[in-house]
Structure formats: structure tokens, C-alpha cells
Amino acid sequence: MMNSKVSLLSLIIEANEDGFLASCPDIQGAFAEGDTVEEAIFNCIDVVKMISAYRADRGETVGIAEFELVPNSKVAVSFPIGVAA
């Protein structure tokens, strides 16, 4: 198993007329829409990854803390899941 560096980010989820908007207040320009909460979150994660890659190519940092997830370590995260009625 490979070790992996991860970052924990806060996302703000807002309902709008077209669905949902997820934004990451820690990273300028990191926001995305989706038809569902889950889609908005995953789209925003993709945007964060693109911003990180772009800044890395330019020799810049994103400015968020990273830590290494190694075997036998655990991270707990909260994740909203829409449940169909």
C-alpha cells in the first residue's frame, strides 16, 4: 500500500435555483455547481485539484496543510449524503 498525502478542507454548500453550489473558502476560485449535493462536492474537489496542479506547475503552493496517511492511520470526515424519500 502506498502512503498518500491528504488535506482536510472545509466546504460551504448552498442550495440555489439550479441545484447546489460548493465552495472552498480557503482557496480562491474553488467553487463548483451540481444537480445534487454530492455532485457539487465532487465537482469542487476536482476544481481544488486543478488549482493545486496549476499552482504546482508554477512553483507556487496552495497554502493548505497536508499530512501523510500511512498504514494503520485513520481520518474521520463528515460528508453530507442526500437520501431519497
How does the SSE layout of this entry go?
Blueprint: E1 4-6, E2 12-16, E3 19-23, E4 31-34, H1 37-57, E5 67-69
Antiparallel strand pairs: 1-5, 2-3, 3-4
CATH hierarchy class name: Alpha Beta
Q: Please compute the radius of gyration using only Cα atoms.
A: 15 Å
Spatial order of the strands forming the largest sheet: 2-3-4
Amount of beta strand: 15-25%
Largest sheet: 3 strands, antiparallel
CATH architecture descriptor text: 2-Layer Sandwich
- Average pLDDT, rounded to a whole number, is 85
Low-pLDDT residue intervals, each spanning 5 or more residues: none
Please give a structural write-up.
The protein has one helix spanning 37-57; strands at 4-6, 12-16, 19-23, 31-34, 67-69. The termini are far apart. The protein has a single domain (4-69), classed as Double Stranded RNA Binding Domain, CATH 3.30.160.250. The protein is an alpha+beta fold. It contains 1 helix and 5 strands; from the N terminus they run ββββαβ.
Q: What labels describe this entry?
A:
85 residues, alpha+beta, Double Stranded RNA Binding Domain, flat
Quick overview of this protein structure:
By secondary structure, this protein is α+β, with helices and mostly antiparallel strands. The protein has 1 helix and 5 strands.
